[in-house]
Amino acid sequence: MTTGAKEQVGRLLALVPMIRREGEMSVEAAATALGMDPEQLVTDLRVLIYCGWPGWMPGDLIEVDLEVLDEDGLIRIHNADYLSTPLRLSAAEASAITVALRTLRESAQGETLQSLDGALAKIEAVAEEGRVEVHVPEQQRGIGETRSTLTRACTDRRQVQLTYYVPARDENTERTVDPLEVVDREGASYLQAWCHLANGRRLFRIDRIVDARVLESSADEHPEVEPLSLTDRLFTPSPDAPLVTLRLKPEARWVAEYYPVESTKERARGRLEVTLRVADERWLNRLLLRLAPHVTVLSPQEYADAYAAAAQDALRLYQ
Predict the structure, then answer these.
(1) pTM beyond cutoff 0.85
(2) Residue 45 has pLDDT above 90, yes or no
(3) If we measure between CA atoms, which residue out of 101, 98, 83 comes closest to residue 132?
(4) Which of 85, 137, 245, 318 sits at a 20 to 30 Å CA gap from 152?
């Protein structure tokens, strides 16, 4: 039996309520009930006398009759009424833990994944028995299930039919992909896949996948596509994408660190001039509206005009 502090706390939290409920017990009987070694149980009891309420005065600590323990092998515990029943999670605590475990599960693998599944199963079993009501957002459940489906498809080398939401066009698209791997970057999970619609490698944010259906057809091999490394950027713009030059005030300088840029130039009063490639004008307009009024489009002029028109349309919504 391990004697780590964390494991010992767990044993004591199970032991004290049992003794308070059953009354005086022999060391052998208590050890058998808890599935532990009797010598370890005695060691835990000698630690228990230093536990109790903050203040650490004699009246605050749990009392163990050590004389009876040593002479007769019996366990008597006093001054522990606040631990008369096992600790239970409230509905809010159980829900928070379940959501957190499901979030961790999205990026877990191997033994870690098995441990998380075991913990989730125990909490959900308690919920099914009606001992606590667990609320898990449907979106959270959906993301975890989609990730599991895609991970299996990668392992089984099966094509996947995706319904994918494209924010830039505010529409769902249908496409068949050869899944390569599931990756986690910058707080989100992605499917890296060869997209037959785009005829190239693409990254799909899992929380934007509306539906994922694994097909019977085998995924094609793509040896030319290298897995993403930890130092790779998620999105690398095409060298053919048009260049846009922006002047950023200090409040918007973070753009140069967050997005891949071609060049930067320091200007007066803490301003920064950056040049970056833009594959989608609608994406650029959304970014500019977020940055307003701390950004100016220097070139090309048509992008500056489009930004001005989008800003005017946004202002009309407030009139």
Answers:
(1) no
(2) no
(3) 98
(4) 137
